[in-house]
Amino acid sequence: MKNLITDVPGVRVGNAQDARAATGATVAVFEGGAVAGVATLGGAPGSRAVSLLEPEMMRGRIDAVVLSGGSLFGLDAAGGATSVLVAGGHGGTFGGITLPVAVQAILFDLTNGGEKDWLRAPMECRPPYWELGRDAALAASDAFALGTAGAGYGATTVNLKGGLGSASARTSQGFTVGGLVAVNAVGAATIGDGPHFWAGAYEQGQEFGGLGWPARLPASALGLRFKGLPAPATATTIALVATDATLSKPACKRLAIMANDGLARALRPVHAPNDGDTVFAAATCRGAAAEEPPALTELGAVAADCLARAIARGVHAATALPFANAVPDWQQRFGAGRPSGLP
Amino acid sequence: MKNLITDVPGVRVGNAQDARAATGATVAVFEGGAVAGVATLGGAPGSRAVSLLEPEMMRGRIDAVVLSGGSLFGLDAAGGATSVLVAGGHGGTFGGITLPVAVQAILFDLTNGGEKDWLRAPMECRPPYWELGRDAALAASDAFALGTAGAGYGATTVNLKGGLGSASARTSQGFTVGGLVAVNAVGAATIGDGPHFWAGAYEQGQEFGGLGWPARLPASALGLRFKGLPAPATATTIALVATDATLSKPACKRLAIMANDGLARALRPVHAPNDGDTVFAAATCRGAAAEEPPALTELGAVAADCLARAIARGVHAATALPFANAVPDWQQRFGAGRPSGLP
């Protein structure tokens, strides 16, 4: 186990980033496809090809989940990923045409630094996301970077640099579950002004520093901090959970809904009006059926744990962007190499 | 009144097409934005940025609706349209960034002829849809072509060439309503083997030939014909209705649901498992509120009529593609210049 979503057999993940624009994309590819669902709990989502995931829709399997920065501009990324999927022979066949399905969600990183030249000169400069989606799909493998990488490249939380996180686990029935998340939260992943993560209770080993849960909650613990005070701002945490269990589309939607609870436990606040928080759930169906409780209940609980852990890992691994006024990273604020003067 | 959706003040429409690839895109731009909703009644939809249209989501206004061919590849078109919207200063402002919203639905025209080189050589040839979306948005004006144009360029029905259609009307309260549709139906717009349209009862003047309703239904009227016999095939009819009334997002969703009834009346069958049938509804909110019945009921009924008429107009105006085995157009089969030997 690598403690990545790629521990789920048949799931590969690739990142691509544009350092100048300070943004990126992450693509999860399912070898042989996956049954999938989505639960969109943020109030300002941006998505592509998600209508077909609803249980009353016919399409049975998808081939990739794309997470990217760029807000609505980022929705080009699934196009680039789709070209790679076509080249790789992915997808179902319709009238002799092989048509892979890449579904996508985006996060808002347009104001986190970097040169967004397509906003200044929209008829001369094309947004980089189609190429980022293509390159991330081309890079898909069993190993990928966490932190300031892929869709997490330009991501932030209200107080610390956000990033890309992942984690995995096995259920009591032997199913593998993995989580992948780009943390660009409206709120905080850490408790008050301290170094502890809200997800501390769920930590496995020292996967995000080993501080665990604080012995005593700081007085600042419940002080509410979020992006957009005083002016409204947009954020968004987007995620995927995957399992090798065999699930139907309705069960995948149930899994996506339960997995959102991992966001609730690791971020405060989350699922806000200007968030586009979206969680995809994908079942590669290589293992036994887990369609009913208690198997599906356990999958959902473990998926939520994986996402909570992945969120903390993404923030813990992130490095600040090299811009003036960039949000500091967890290591700068709380790590061994922190500058003096910081707690 | 031009009998086009652009009779609704503030709505402009542009087409772009790629004759070699036999596909295209149509973009409706809302000057000053529009409140919008969507109702997706087909079983295999492809869409972009539609999650934000749901009534529980925050985004209040959109700037454009994009209809295009290309199935899931076509979803790049909203990206190109968005660049034009940025250049034109459209969209709300978030953290100093002007962010226009272009929502999109696609239809499946990949097997209707034309050179889809990006399917053969996906790493060398990029799909043309980003450029088609850009060019259609650049072409947006009060007048636009119907028939084999824009998103209707590669469209077909089971027995006749499909195409782009539009129609408009005024309600008793003085609201203007317009419909825009790309007819790529799984079924037929005409009754049995004859020239009459199912939408004949709703015809205004001679907007689609003036044949009206047949005096006597032909014996073939209810013979069921649809694409995908014996092998499954995909189709899709995608549409927009717009009004100058002031509506909330929930009322726009209600309008989109009622407008789907225009598809039901003009096409048989429709809303099928392999259809992606999607209807957007947009309110420019330049007129009085029409939030409640009976005003909203009348808007919905008139919007459905407009879409039924627009469907017949789109088929009536279409010209067959210049490919061997291309589906014939209505004029060839039933028009004044039809070859002898055809009815």
If you had to describe this structure to a student in words, what would you say it looks like?
- The structure is a homodimer of 343-residue chains.
- Chain A is an alpha+beta fold.
- The first copy, chain A, has a single domain, classed as 4-Layer Sandwich (L-amino peptidase D-ALA esterase/amidase).
- Chain A has 6 helices and 11 strands.
- Chain A has helices at 77-87, 117-120, 129-138, 249-266, 295-317, 330-334; strands spanning 11-18, 23-40, 47-48, 62-68, 92-94, 97-99, 102-106, 163-170, 176-183, 238-243, 278-283.
- In chain A, the strands form 2 sheets. In chain A, strands 1, 2, 3, 4, 7, 8, 9, 10 and 11 form a 9-stranded mixed beta sheet that branches. A two-stranded antiparallel ribbon of chain A has the order 5-6.
- In chain A, α1 (77-87) packs parallel to α3 (129-138) and α4 packs across α5.
- The longest helix of chain A is centred in the last third of the chain and has 23 residues, at 295-317.
- Chain A is globular.
- The model of chain A has no long low-confidence stretch (mean pLDDT 95).
- At the A-B interface, β3, α1 and β6 of A face β3, α1 and β6 of B.
- Chains A, B: One of its GO terms (molecular function) is aminopeptidase activity.
